[in-house]
Amino acid sequence: MVLLPALLLLQVVFISSQAQKDRLQKKFFLLEPQKQITDALAACKRNYTDLVTIYDQVENANHSEAVVKGSYSCSWIGANGCTWSNGDPVTFINFSRNFTEERCCGALTAHGAWECFNCSSKMYFMCHKQDHILISLNKTWIEAQLYCTKNQSNLVSITNEMENERVKEAVNGSDSVWIGFQYNYKVVWSDDGYSHYKEDVKAACLTFLPNNCSTRSLSTCAPLCYKRFIYVSTEKKSWEAALNYCMSYPKKDGLLRIQSEDDQREVERELKRQNITEPVWVGLRKSRLFGFWIWSSGLMVGPWTNWQDGRKDPETSYFCGALEKNNGTYMWSDKDCRLELRFLCEVK
To answer: Tell me, which fold does domain 132-185+201-226 have in CATH?
Structure first.
């Protein structure tokens, strides 16, 4: 049986949804000093959550304004429209001044800069297994990649300046040669966010704000990081065990409560980002003493609610609440408290 202290039950109160409006909303941080993209991504993941994902025009405008007000020339965000032929994301760039942001395949010039070519063009190419191997055959980018894979390798990937210099030396003065760089047809976000916002975030490599910045060969920008306040468990527990976990672990602040549409929106984004389709426990609990629903923190549920079937009948429902996906959205539902489900904690 799941019990809440009687004193807690007697202290149930309403808290204004306006006062709690931004409780679960992500917080954003512009970091100093400016960094290369690999260092920027590492700093965001180490100290916060990740580089920012942009979901709509308002967020894009607000972030761009913050960059300008902070006197930064540019700021890294989490959008990436490029990959290497082995599937790894592009985290280092060495574009030439003539590089054009079009969907194309990448080649390395004799001077070590990257150029954008039509993928059906034919040229020499470089495979990489343990060593860099220049293949003196004229092939399209796809043909070159197939040649490399048939020989247990891939077109070469370049992740830093030192590797770029080694590949340049292996080219040994040849004309431009294919490398493994390619544009995708969609933006991929570093935190795996499910954002469909495309107006100002094109499928470009290492995207940054403001998006009218004309230089695509910038080596350093200010990282624009975000921190989220929702923890999604990987293990499954009963409701009571989930409550104990969220209350006892450092940087956790109890099972999640959802008090507004803003809270619900943030929760849905996080569940979609992690591709969660199964039910997950939240802090919903029905008082056995009084028969109404409360949050595990002792706060009354409402006035805003999101039940699957409207207001719950206190005489027929189970005593613990979960989020459950229904027709593409996550609704509240009552569940047997003994069920073992994944769960959501609030993060301090």
So the answer is: Mannose-Binding Protein A; Chain A (3.10.100)
- State residue 308's pLDDT score: 86
Distance of CA 138 to the CA centre of its chain: 39
| Residue 73 · residue 218 · CB < 8 Å | yes
Look at the block and give the residue holding tokens 């507004």. Answer: 260
Q: Is the distance from CB of 280 to CB of 341 less than 8 angstroms?
A: yes
Q: Tens digit of pLDDT for each residue in 68-125?
A: 677 777 788 888 878 899 888 787 878 776 666 566 789 999 889 998 888 999 999 9
- The CA-based dihedral angle spanning residues 205, 266, 241, 10, taken in that order and rounded to the nearest 10 degrees: 160
Beta-carbon contacts of residue 308 (< 8 Å; ≥ 6 apart) = 324, 326, 331, 332, 333
Give the chain's length: 348
Q: What is the CATH number of domain 25-129?
A: 3.10.100.10
As its CATH architecture, domain 230-347 has Roll (3.10)
Q: What is the pLDDT averaged over residues 289-293?
A: 83
Instruction: In whole angstroms, give the CA distance from residue 104 to residue 91.
Output: 17
Any idea which residue has 């990937």 for tokens? 157
